[in-house]
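Here comes just one.
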Amino acid sequence: MIARFAGGPLAGREPETTDAPWAGGWLTAGDADWGLYVPVHRDPVTGVVLAEIRVTTPRRP
């Protein structure tokens, strides 16, 4: 499976992952800020997953 990232620190990257379903997660690239990516669409023909950055606000304790 290939995940295509839109927005955030991983914008434009297409990493290859395992064949298992991917629920998204917190990811970063190099020294960039962390971004929460969520899968929004899976192409049934190619299996490519479009993952978009989800804007979040840090919680205060």
Strands lie at 3-6, 25-27, 35-42, 49-54. Residues 3 and 49 are 5 Å apart (CA to CA).
